[in-house]
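Retry 2 of 3 after timeout on previous attempt. Resubmitting structure tokens to design endpoint.
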């Protein structure tokens, strides 16, 4: 599903190039469900942005479901993402003026009659326990319910790859646990490959596979731990 070789990304800050990611090799097979943990600033979101084609790497290769994304220009990467990748974010990004149903319907790409469309959305809302909330606006839903709608929106076109960036980051513990279970269950039931980055160790512990970003990203592997940086700055340990 995903093959990465020698993928490098740096950002320019104050005219200086700062290496953020260096992934010598990483492969994910179809149907795998993987949680990636790691401290803030270790390149987790950047990695997902590269896999989704939102960002382009400086060098190296990245193939998603047989498509070499590094060979595509931005417009083609956008089209590939729309058809093949579902993305769930921490803050849901639902459209406030649309109901739960409408937020899902506008994401649907299949050519369906309005009746088929309605039936499909009803089926999804039922699966995530929101059958009686289809006409609610996001502001009339709890945060956990909003994230359920966002998850359906990401899955409704059956993308082979589902990415989630801190999907439980703004939820209370119990709701986070429900959302973790839901993501895992839906991706298993529908055969999606799922890559989640998270601070939430409870969520990570539920996953069949859990990686620290250091196992993938050679930059964060080499990074000086924050505590050590503070001590260096204070001159409390020799350079
Ligand atoms: P994480 O998701 O693990 O918290 P990110 O991937 O968001 O980390 O960021 C990794 C590092 O890259 C951070 O140090 C961040 O400041 C830096 N960074 C991210 N995006 C940019 C950008 N557009 N320009 C400059 N630096 C960036
Ligand atoms: Mg992040």
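Retry 2 succeeded. Sequence:
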């Amino acid at each position: 599903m995903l093959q990465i070789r020698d993928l490098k990304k740096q950002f320019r800050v104050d005219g200086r190039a700062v290496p953020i990611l260096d992934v010598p090799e990483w492969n994910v097979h179809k149907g795998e469900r993987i949680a990636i943990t790691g401290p803030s600033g270790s390149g987790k979101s950047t990695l997902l942005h590269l896999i989704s084609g939102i960002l382009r790497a400086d060098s190296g290769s990245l193939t998603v479901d047989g498509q070499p994304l590094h060979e595509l220009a931005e417009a083609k990467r956008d089209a590939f993402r729309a058809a093949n990748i579902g993305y769930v974010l921490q803050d849901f990004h639902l459209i406030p003026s649309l109901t739960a149903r409408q937020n899902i319907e506008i994401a649907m790409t299949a050519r369906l009659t309005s009746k088929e469309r309605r039936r499909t959305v009803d089926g999804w809302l039922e699966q995530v326990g929101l059958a009686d909330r289809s006409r609610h606006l996001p502001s009339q839903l709890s945060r956990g319910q909003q994230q359920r709608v966002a998850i359906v929106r990401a899955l409704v076109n059956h993308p082979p790859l589902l990415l989630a960036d801190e999907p439980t980051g703004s939820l209370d513990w119990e709701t986070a646990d429900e959302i973790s279970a839901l993501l895992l269950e839906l991706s298993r039931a529908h055969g999606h490959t799922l890559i989640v980055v998270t601070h939430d160790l409870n969520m990570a512990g539920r996953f069949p596979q859990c990686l620290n970003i250091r196992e993938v990203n050679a930059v964060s592997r080499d990074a000086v731990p924050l505590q050590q940086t503070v001590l260096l700055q204070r001159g409390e340990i020799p350079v």
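Attempt log closed. The mean pLDDT is 90.
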